């Protein structure tokens, strides 16, 4: 059903949650509530809702895998979701194309680095920057030929890190030897202080 006017989402009242941060992807939405819990709903393709499957949810549903995490920010791409905790940890889930989720599973001996992630996973590669991440953002440039998502993480000291698709220079870092993506975050040479 199409809505022509804003309407209160009753599910938040039923869950006793007060939304504080909202993000929308192409086909899904995510909310951080005042208590730090995360809810997602919409089309669950590639696991972008974080409920361990690819099923759709017509109303907001708490992401159970993050129940012990106090979230402060959420960001979405077309088929991805990123959650930032109050400690600066970043969790991601959804479409793993272009290495834009930040999980270098191939390097860790766990198979394909482009694998979809159905439940939230800690982005271990961002722990290596040894600074608290305060903002995360993903940009998805899709067309009929290929997926082209890339992600930016901003630290407390104003340093910017990028990973994901970079074949068009969109990361702001140089790729070597015909690479088309950065699996691990690389610092962008720009001062944002």
UniProtKB/TrEMBL annotation:
Keyword set, alphabetical order: Repeat
Extent of the RCC repeats: 36-87, 88-157, 158-193
Claim: Chaperone is one of the keywords in the record: no
SUPFAM superfamilies cross-referenced by the UniProt entry: RCC1/BLIP-II
Name of protein: Uncharacterized protein
Organism: Gossypium darwinii (Darwin's cotton)
């Amino acid at each position: 059903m199409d809505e022509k006017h804003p309407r209160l989402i009753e599910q938040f009242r039923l869950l006793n949650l007060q939304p504080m941060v909202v993000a929308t992807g192409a086909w899904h939405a995510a909310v951080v509530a005042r208590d730090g819990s995360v809810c997602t709903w919409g089309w669950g393709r590639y696991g972008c809702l974080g409920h361990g499957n690819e099923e759709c949810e017509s109303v907001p549903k708490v992401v159970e895998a993050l129940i012990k995490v106090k979230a402060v920010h959420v960001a979405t791409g077309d088929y991805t979701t990123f959650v930032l905790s109050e400690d600066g940890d970043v969790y991601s889930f959804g479409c793993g194309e272009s290495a834009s989720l930040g999980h270098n599973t191939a390097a860790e001996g766990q198979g394909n680095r482009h694998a979809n992630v159905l439940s939230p996973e800690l982005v271990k590669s961002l722990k290596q920057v040894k600074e608290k991440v305060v903002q995360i953002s993903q940009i998805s440039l899709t067309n009929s030929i290929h997926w082209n998502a890339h992600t930016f993480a901003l630290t407390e000291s104003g340093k910017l890190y990028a990973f994901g698709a970079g074949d068009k220079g969109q990361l702001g870092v140089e790729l070597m030897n015909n690479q088309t993506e950065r699996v691990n975050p690389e610092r962008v040479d720009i001062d944002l202080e």
